[in-house]
Amino acid sequence: MKNFLLKLSIVLFTGLSLNINAAEPLAEIKNFRVLSNQFANAGMPTAEEFELIQQQGYQHIINLIPGDFSHEQQQVTSLGMSFQQIAVDWHQPTLENFQEFVKIMQQYQQDKVLVHCQLNYRASAFSYLYQVTQLGISAKLANSQMETVWQPEGTWLEFIEMVEQHYKIQQ
Predict the structure, then answer these.
(1) How many other C-beta atoms lie within 10 A of the C-beta of residue 162?
(2) DSSP labels for 26-64?
(3) Are 43 and 118 in contact (CB under 8 A)?
(4) In a domain, 171, yes or no
(5) Distance of alpha carbon 131 from alpha carbon 128, whole angstroms
(6) How far apart are CA 33 and CA 94, in angstroms?
């Protein structure tokens, strides 16, 4: 009986360790944050990290960086995930950028989505806005999540306030 319990303990412990280790690599992605079971944001993942993202069950990648990301698109789609890009100008984010983001997110409501940019500044701001304008998350909670990455100022603070006003969100 002791031998059986020892073997069972080893199997259970090994299984638990594998689950923990499987999630650890995502923490290595620049400013990776899990916001819910279906929603995370991050800075720019590497090619190897996209494979880990897919292995963790993410189905959709949204890139908020302007430019040619055809290589990323090819890699992401070859892994069986969808790829969307919204070219959000760092110096001039727009309400239209955010509304496009909302339309994409509404298509993926039950799926796991990773939204990213270079350092998770754009992505965390868009995530904050999506949570408060579309999901009914309190501004206080969503802001506390965003502030683990950065504290928007200048253009980005003005952008956030403009979108909040558009959607009539009270601080």
Answers:
(1) 14
(2) HHTSTT-EEEETTEEEES---HHHHHHHHHTT--EEEE-
(3) yes
(4) no
(5) 5
(6) 24
Does a structural domain hold residue 90?
Answer: yes
| Structure tokens given for 32 | 């990776």
Q: In one letter, which amino acid is 51?
A: E
Supply the range of the domain harboring residue 66: 2-166
> For each of the chain's 171 residues, which pLDDT tens digit applies?
444 333 433 333 333 323 333 356 799 999 999 999 999 999 999 999 999 999 999 999 999 999 999 999 999 999 999 999 999 999 999 999 999 999 999 999 999 999 999 999 999 999 999 999 999 999 999 999 999 999 999 999 999 999 999 999 876
Domain count, the chain: 1
- For the sheet containing 33-36, what is the strand order? 33-36, 39-42, 113-116, 60-63, 82-85
pTM over 0.90: no
